[in-house]
């Protein structure tokens, strides 16, 4: 059911990711020109992610007709597996951005309380700058998901990927100029016009613009979900490095300056928690040799991986955290995340390097569907019904 007008006009807004979910959506990787060794190692890690999340909330994995049986055989029985065609499996960016209704906005008890925004997608930059030249199947993913769930759809002509935004659920949105103001997305829109669209569709009142994303995140032109995210209202995690010779250092200091000199939509000064990046990590000759040189952006040996511990998924009562095989920083990340989310169990996903090799990580491959009605969420970022379980 397509909706006229904007989500805000209908009383919808995008909730914070720590608010309760009804399920998580994940695609299934297969294209050999992005996932090495015919995506076999990547599929193994996707299965780990789906299995881990399924212990805390329902999970639906979508796989092509050619891959459905393989996905079904690798996933636990409690994970639903649906057949769906796609160009690649980055559901954060191609799936719908779910929004929920404010309880006071619904006059009819039967009116849907959850809906989805179907942004326009152009493969992170279009024909000239994108990651692959044909994204026609990806353009249908959000619509298919919303039809499966029988949820209202807000079509949006603006090009935007879900990984380029983070919200606190209280009126504030985080993003980067490097991505949203890039001329390979919406060259005819000004910064003010993009802000207006974000406010109208996400129900936010203030946009905090970081200049750039993570160093090396060229595929997405600096998505925010590799660089910075909210922990709770007024608190953010920032990808950091102590190495002043690392190109990421300049970006991190630049972002820290912005974050320390702004307030959120409610006038709060932001607390910044530094989360050190791994490595640096680079694609090996063996890893690059396993990727077919076909239609997708080349994967070259020696390329620095856009690896970040900020790229995690918040499940109902758990943090599903990437681990890159860098023991020092893997352990430090788990410690920091445990302190930041004291009522969540931090679940390590070993081998997340495989997802980074293809250009993203756990947050990039997942899309949460919020639950309505929401339970009361305290400022530790977890619903009261989940606190009792931890």
TrEMBL record:
<dbReference type="GO" id="GO:0004668">
    <property type="term" value="F:protein-arginine deiminase activity"/>
</dbReference>
<dbReference type="InterPro" id="IPR017754">
    <property type="entry name" value="Agmatine_deiminase"/>
</dbReference>
<dbReference type="GO" id="GO:0047632">
    <property type="term" value="F:agmatine deiminase activity"/>
</dbReference>
<keyword id="KW-0378">Hydrolase</keyword>
<dbReference type="InterPro" id="IPR007466">
    <property type="entry name" value="Peptidyl-Arg-deiminase_porph"/>
</dbReference>
<protein>
    <recommendedName>
        <fullName>Agmatine deiminase</fullName>
    </recommendedName>
</protein>
<dbReference type="Pfam" id="PF04371">
    <property type="entry name" value="PAD_porph"/>
</dbReference>
<dbReference type="GO" id="GO:0009446">
    <property type="term" value="P:putrescine biosynthetic process"/>
</dbReference>
